[in-house]
Design brief:
The complex is a heterodimer of chains A (248) and B (347).
Chain A: H1 23-38, E1 44-47, H2 56-59, E2 63-65, H3 72-82, E3 87-93, H4 94-100, H5 102-111, E4 116-121, H6 151-154, H7 160-164, E5 170-177, H8 181-199, E6 204-210, H9 214-217, H10 221-235, E7 239-242
Parallel strand pairs in A: 1-2, 1-3, 3-4, 4-6, 5-6
Antiparallel strand pairs in A: 5-7
Chain B: E1 2-7, H1 8-18, E2 23-26, H2 34-45, E3 49-52, H3 56-68, E4 73-77, H4 79-84, H5 86-95, E5 99-105, H6 121-125, E6 136-138, H7 143-160, E7 163-169, H8 170-174, E8 176-181, E9 205-206, H9 215-233, E10 237-240, E11 247-250, H10 253-268, E12 273-278, E13 280-282, H11 286-292, E14 298-303, H12 309-316, E15 323-328, H13 337-346
Parallel strand pairs in B: 2-3, 2-4, 4-5, 5-7, 6-7, 11-12, 11-14, 14-15
Antiparallel strand pairs in B: 1-8, 6-13, 10-12
Helix pairs in contact in B: 1-2, 1-7, 3-5, 10-13, 11-12
Classes of the chains: A alpha/beta (248), B alpha/beta (347).
């Protein structure tokens, strides 16, 4: 019998805590698939964030460390500098990367640290049940912006790719989405590009992935995908900001 | 034997290098700016990694990463910077990662000043960050000792998989003395728990999050057993003329060194007086001090703060009849031997 599809070796065989329609399951599976495809499982080290994906050290079947909230880029910096032949990545949500860990990501990027960042942007705080994120859209309702985010009182969302694009240390910078099959395929390609770019020792590779959080958006999984496409991707355009031009 | 004229920062840095430290991350802060400057050159020379981080928060988390990867790693700073590191130190303790943190204590609270202080005693010996944990704390009183203690700190950190703090101060940081350098360490303990890629083994993970009810409690009990072992094995102290002395002066670090001179002066005047000096501030030598106080009638605790270690001295003296006095200089004040001598005579 020919096996045409199976669980990647880089994922453990456990149930995740993720809600139905959550983007984390999709994205972590993509990362695991790419790690398998590139044959780098035994030399990959991941850094888990604080937030919904904190338990990813139980889901990835390779070495993973916890990091304090927002500090994953500092932890990854040291590991990659000391073990340059390993493949190191951080997996961070929007609160982790764009609020509490803003200093760490900007300075790791400015230094051109040679690891990959997978930035999962679902425009809301997931694990703490739905408060405003730095990437919450204007007008979007959260548990701390019950009448919607008003920029005049709550400030404006941060577009991380646009912000980082001025830094020379980031050499591959792309925003993708998982709102449909084409987006998922493009996201998988971006993850692969990031790892290949890291193997070339060319500086930080950063992929922002727009993801769904139906539970905290208070939508069905299907409507969540629709909202991503119709609203989120308008504010956060899916595009390549810096293209290393690698063949995948 | 290598002899060098070094200040406390350089002496400590050389102790780290002799101990095989291969990673330093730090952020400039007076009075220990010489530390990152010196390490930026020395790490390169010994094939290690030096990073000038964007903050002390980042420094300690870089140290976390380096320790996670299995390397001997350290950072140094002074009081306000050490405050910023407390989150990271709590994570190191929770994840049971070995690391060395050198604090050249300056005056506080807040931005304080840049002169020597011992006001971080509580922060150092009571955990400092959130959660139930302890860090081993070594209190050197000379450039030679900060060299030796930093070297020792790496061995202790590895032995117990626990952060170790070397608590110096602004005086030790900037004072120059001759230092006998330790030989470069060649053999290191294996770290099967480190994250270096799961080649030929099951994946490792490092974490301090245990959400399943009861699991974190079990983890804390495991840490408690480790701390009890450290309390049993790692207490260090020195005593001078303590046997049968009626009067005991207690101090640590710089203050102990100054007090020693005052004690010598008092002895020359015929006083029956000794000095007790904890070297490990945690674990604190309660039993050893209690033994020392058996015949004591008076105890003078001298610190460069408003009275912190004196609380531990009182705990040690709970079965003693001795009256306990305190003399402190907070906010960056440094007593001189005459001043302590006068204080001894007054009590």
């Amino acid at each position: 019998m020919k096996v045409i599809y199976q669980k990647p070796e880089s994922l453990t065989d456990v149930n995740t805590i993720y809600c139905p329609g959550c983007g984390h399951g999709i994205i972590q599976k993509l990362i695991a698939e790419v790690v398998d495809e590139l044959g780098i499982r035994e030399k990959t080290i991941g850094i888990a964030p604080v937030g919904c994906a904190v338990l990813s050290y139980d889901y990835f079947n390779f070495d993973v460390s916890e990091a304090a909230h927002g500090r994953a880029p500092a932890v990854a910096t040291a590991i990659k500098r000391l073990l340059p032949s390993r493949i190191v990545f951080t997996y961070q949500g929007d609160g982790d990367l764009a609020a509490i860990g803003t200093a760490e990501i900007i300075h790791a990027a400015a230094r051109g640290e040679n690891f990959s960042v997978f930035f999962v942007n679902n425009a809301v705080y997931g694990m703490t049940k739905g408060q405003m994120a730095p990437t919450t859209l204007p007008g979007q309702k959260t548990t701390t912006t019950i009448n919607g985010r008003h920029p005049e009182t709550h400030g404006y969302p941060i577009r991380m790719c646009e912000l980082l694009s001025s830094l020379e240390g980031v050499t591959y910078l792309e925003r993708t989405t998982i709102s449909d099959i084409l987006g998922i395929v493009a996201t998988r390609r971006a993850i692969k590009k990031a790892f290949l770019w890291q193997m070339e020792n060319k500086g930080m590779s950063f992929v922002e992935i727009l993801a769904s959080c139906p539970t905290n958006w208070k939508t069905s999984p299907l409507d969540a995908m629709k909202w991503m496409k119709e609203t989120m991707e308008k504010y956060y355009p899916v595009k390549i900001f810096k293209d290393p031009g690698i063949d995948t | 034997m290598r002899m060098n004229l070094l200040n406390g920062c350089e002496a400590s840095a050389e102790g780290a290098i002799s101990a095989g430290c291969k990673f330093y991350a730090g952020y400039p802060i007076t009075p220990q700016n010489r530390y990152p400057e010196y390490m930026s050159r020395r790490m390169e020379e010994v094939g290690g990694v030096f990073i000038q981080a964007e903050s002390e928060t980042s420094s300690i988390n870089m140290v976390f990463g380096a320790a996670a990867a299995g390397f001997r790693a350290m950072t140094s700073s002074s009081s306000p910077g050490i405050s910023l590191m407390q989150e990271g130190i709590s994570y190191l303790a929770g994840c049971e990662l070995p690391a060395v943190i050198v604090n050249m204590n300056r005056g506080g609270p807040g931005l304080g000043d840049v002169t020597p202080s011992q006001a971080d005693y509580f922060q150092s010996t009571r955990g400092g960050g959130h959660g139930d944990y302890r860090t081993i704390v070594l209190a050197p009183w000379s450039c030679q000792e900060i060299h030796d203690h930093t070297y020792l700190a790496f061995d202790l950190a590895d032995r117990y998989r626990n952060p170790v703090i070397v608590l110096g101060d602004g005086l030790i940081a900037q004072m120059y003395e001759t230092v006998r350098l330790k030989a470069i360490k060649k053999r290191f303990p294996k770290k099967p728990w480190a994250l270096d890629g799961c080649s030929g083994r099951k994946p490792n993970s490092l974490k301090s999050l245990f959400l399943t009810p009861g699991v974190l409690e079990a983890h804390n009990w495991k840490l408690a057993a480790k701390y009890a072992k450290i309390e049993k094995r790692e207490i260090r102290y020195e005593s001078y003329y303590c046997k049968d002395s009626k009067y005991i002066v207690v101090g640590f670090g710089t203050c102990a060194r100054i007090a020693k001179e005052a004690v010598e002066m008092a002895r020359q005047q015929g006083m029956n007086i000794g000095l007790f000096r904890p070297i490990t501030l945690w674990p604190f030598p309660y039993a050893q001090l209690a033994e020392c106080l058996k015949n004591a009638k008076k105890v003078l605790v001298v610190e460069m703060n408003l009275g912190q270690m004196v609380e531990d001295v009182k705990l040690a003296a709970k079965n003693s009849d001795a009256r306990i006095f305190f003399y402190g200089r907070p906010g960056g004040g440094v007593p001189d031997p005459d001043e302590i001598y006068r204080e001894i005579k007054k009590k």
